[in-house]
Amino acid sequence: MANLQLLWFKRDLRIRDHLPLLLGSKSGTVLPIYVFEPSLWSSPEYDASHFEFVRQSLVELDHNLRRLGGRLAIRIGELPDVFIQISGTMPFHSILSHEETGTWLTYERDQRVARWARACGIPWKEHPQNGVIRRLKSRDGWAGAWARRMSERIAECPEYIPVPEEFEWGHVPTVDQVMPNSGNVVGDLQRGGESKAISILESFLADRGGDYRGSMSSPLTAETSCSRLSPYLAWGNLSIKQVQQATARKIGDLTCDFGKTDGAARSSRIRSLKSFMSRLSWHCHFIQKMESEPEIEFRNICRLYDGLREGEFNSERFEAWKSGNTGFPMIDACMRYLHHHRWINFRMRAMIMSFSAYHLWLHWREPAVFLASQFLDFEPGIHYSQCQMQSGVTGINTIRIYSPSKQLLDQDPTGEFVRRWVPELEHVPLAFLAEPHRMSIDDQMRYRCRIGIDYPRAIVEDKVAVKIAKDRIYAIRQTEAAKDAAVQVFTKHGSRKRQFRDPLPGSSTGNPASVRKPAVKLRKGDNDKQPRLPGMEDF
Fold first, then answer.
1. pLDDT band at residue 502, thresholds of 50, 70 and 90?
2. pLDDT of residue 498
3. Which of 366, 462, 505, 508 is buried deepest, with most CB atoms within 10 A?
4. Among the listed ranges 93-97, 187-191, 213-217, 529-533, which one has the minimum average pLDDT value?
5. Is the pLDDT of residue 533 over 50?
């Protein structure tokens, strides 16, 4: 078939703001395809919940393509083998897709596809779909380039999608066909699909985002006050540009809404939406790190910290942390909530990752892989960068050791969240809820919670574990070698935008010139009040 183009869907499961789809539909016949790759879906980062979200997204994508005259081909197999098989019966002359910054598996997969396409003389055109810049030479000017990308016109939806008349399209498979022995999807999960994504965005801008700034930190309020767009961005039901422009329009409407709404309420909503919009650039900022250095999925961003935790991995602590049985109520409540919803707000994500790294002294890699499987919004570039950041091995970010007790008092002041997700503590009064091990035997009997029987003992002694972690990490961080290494990391990965700079050791500004100042110190017992950063995948 003359001028047949293979349109490869990956993490871009939508028809709006999809430039490869639009350009392909205008220049010839297209063959839209999504491939379930067994090697990818069998990796430990992926879970049946991810599959279900993608399955729902593909069902709607196929429906939307059919409305425009097209269809979606579905295959199970490795790449480029699937493309080779298709080209034998339906020769195509080019490949269209979006760029992807994924795991090492997708990085190697893309290299294989590129080598095969070059060998066959098949051009493969990859289009950017966010603010991440491929083959970036310098971080200087990145923020401006991101802003220009976000201001570009959103690609319109095609009017008609011409596809081959005769082709074996296939069907969306079941989870057992792609992920054998993965188990059933359990819990209350967000549904995938472009229409659901648009609905969630509209509800956030119209109402839910009004108290975003004030409600995003507590797991009690974040469930509805956060945008909840992160899985739709991670799997491409929405583009970051769509969200950024829609938010900017809403801010503009509110700014011009004089006399129609209460001034104080309007100003508060504007501040909340501006706070949210700033996190959209952070989203791409972190993905850019993996785009520039794919190895950070496996190795420390700052290599000076190699060996810091290697060889000391405590499997018993790891299993207790994973299951929400550490004896630290706020940690356990968050982990159990996460298992059920496959989502939790950023402050709690940072806390559970920090707890694994400092209190439990676990190397970040295994906890990061486990959390990837639990986060429905797993975005590799953000995820691994943030897990390293919360573990203190980036070399340029402020050390944040969260106190689980303080977080309970700050973010769950009535104990509602903890009691809901750790029912063993249902009758424990607030005075003991953050540290139930302080109860006397009489109190334990009175409140029906025997420590070590009904609820586990604290897996580590809080203050002792934190002191050991501080001493060990600052033994490296305060050296001249660490300061030199920080400059190198900042040069490659640090943000140049003033309000978004990555703070270096000894620097409140993130300016390499100030690196030689005395090393920063943690606040007494906790440094939770450091300036907020956007969270892993969550917004």
1. very low
2. 54
3. 505
4. 529-533
5. no
The pTM assigned to this predicted structure is 0.92
- pLDDT > 70? residue 505: no
In the numeric block, which tokens belong to residue 178? Answer: 């792609």
Options 2.60.120.560, 1.10.405.10, 3.40.640.10, 1.10.579.10; CATH for 296-514 is: 1.10.579.10
Compute the distance between CA of residue 437 and CA of residue 405 in angstroms, rounded to an integer: 12
Mean pLDDT (whole number) for 42-67 = 97
| Domain 4-129, CATH class in plain words | alpha beta
Looking at the DSSP bridge assignments, the partners of residue 29 are: 4
What is residue 516's DSSP assignment?
Answer: T
Is residue 124 classed as helix, strand or coil in its secondary structure? strand
Partners of 94 in the β-ladder: 5
Is the predicted pLDDT of residue 538 greater than 90, yes or no? no
Amino acid at 236: G
User: Cβ(331)–Cβ(358) under 8 Å?
Assistant: no
Dig out the tokens for 257 from the structure: 């809404």
Helices then strands, counting H and E runs in the chain, come out as 24, 5
Range(s) within the chain of domains with CATH label 1.10.579.10: 296-514
Asked if 355 and 328 count as a contact pair (C-beta separation under 8 A), the reply is yes
Is 136 in contact with 149 (CB distance < 8 Å)? no
Question: Are 30 and 117 within 8 A, CB to CB?
Answer: no
CB neighbour list of residue 425: distance below 8 Å, 6 or more residues apart: 329, 415, 418, 419, 433, 436, 449, 455
pLDDT of residue 278: 87
Token output for 275:
């706070």
Residues of the chain with CATH 3.40.50.620: 4-129
Distance CA 221, CA 130 (A): 29
pLDDT at res. 12: 98
Enumerate the CATH 1.25.40 domain ranges in the chain, comma separated.
194-292
Nearest 5°: the CA angle 500, 505, 510 is: 25
Contact 157, 194 (CB under 8 A): no
The CA distances from residue 414 to 213, 223, 411, 429, in Å, are 20, 17, 9, 10
Q: Which two tokens stand for residue 531?
A: 């300036």
* CATH code given to domain 194-292: 1.25.40
508 close to 521: Cβ distance less than 8 angstroms:
no
Residues 328-365 pLDDT 10s: 999 999 999 999 999 999 999 999 999 999 999 999 99
3-class secondary structure per residue, 339-403:
HHHCCCCHHHHHHHHHHHHHHCCCCCHHHHHHHHHHCCCCCHHHHHHHHHHCCCCCCCCCCCCCC
**Which amino acid type is present at position 149?**
R
3-state secondary structure of 140: coil
Residues whose CB is less than 8 angstroms from the CB of residue 229 and which lie 6 or more positions away in sequence, other chains included: 197, 200, 201, 204, 238, 243, 539
